[in-house]
Amino acid sequence: MDRGSALVVRDAGAGTAFDDTDESHALLTTANYSAPGVAGAAPNYTLLVMPSTNLSAALQASTCYLESASGLVPQNRVIANTTTRGYGGGERLQFEVEGLTKGTNYSSWLVEGNTNGSTRLWLPVSFVTKSGTNCRLLHSLSFCPQVAYSVPSPATLSTASLISYYNTTVTPSLTAFARTLTTFPCDDITMGGYSFVSTCDDCYNSYETWACAIALPRCTDAPSNATLETTDSSSNSSAAWVIPTSYEQLLLRENPAASRTPDFAPSLLSTTFPGLINATETADSETPFPYSEVPPCLDTCQQVGARCPPFIGWGCPSAQIDGGTGTAGYGLTKPVTKGDRMGGGIGGSNMLAGDRYGNVFCNALGTDMISSVQTPTKSAATSSVSTPLWRSLVVAVGSVAGWLLVA
Length: 407
What we know:
Radius of gyration: 22 Å
Structural class: alpha+beta
């Protein structure tokens, strides 16, 4: 597009938040453009994506170069949809970029065209596609609305079957927790007012986020020298769990028995997914192991304790290394300067889960934003329906499953 002498406004920050990639897709999301529960007209946004080069870095502020550069991903492979996922609620655009090359560094720019002919250009956001096929990008899940990242997946399993598996895994725990929460007088101001800032709805939303982070681990490439460990998944494998001496950004999952996805072990795949293993697809070629996990941020656990009634008795590991086992299952946010933040950020603390260069320190599912400003979770989904989701989950069931998932 030739903009001639039209005004170009260059923003000092990034325009999108990087969610995640798999080997051929990427997901990025803008800041919200409407208030929670209020529909609004989406801005005239365009996402430009191209492989990262020295030239693209040098000319990152030139709309003339960016819109005509060689290697630019065609716009018919950049699919925009509306979502309410993210801190603060409200509507925002998510861009799913398709047909990318595996193991490749990309840069992306958000551009807004205005009715007066001017253009707004944000700083680029970088990311790299995964090299393997053992991580699958999932988002817009009804049972885990904050999930927007890659999860471990058998190589040729359909996305629908993968979603169904994770739904079956996490939903019983959400239902059981919702039932437990009904034993507390949430609607009685006199007896149920346990906090000036949090409600039972906030409590359930925080638990849902934590449970989804635990049951749907965030997956990324394992080191090239990693190998599958074949410890029997039915044996006592407590010794197989590695307890790092410090909180790490990545946890290598080589042993299915010492992971959050033991059902994906080669010996169990034919039981977990009948029909997946055949003469063409073997268990060893289908299993996602070994893979690396981006551990949930410790904030995901701490916010459950901060927002739930005391009778829940919630506990979390310490952020300090005190001889416990928290380092085997959680990660920590890190300081990110203002210029390095992803789009959609807010003020407050600079302790965040990632930056605009594609670095991901832990899997936050938005909890880093909440911790940053120390306000209760108020999602658009909660404010726009008369019955909160956790209440609708409390239905007649034969027995109540345990709601405390293994962290």
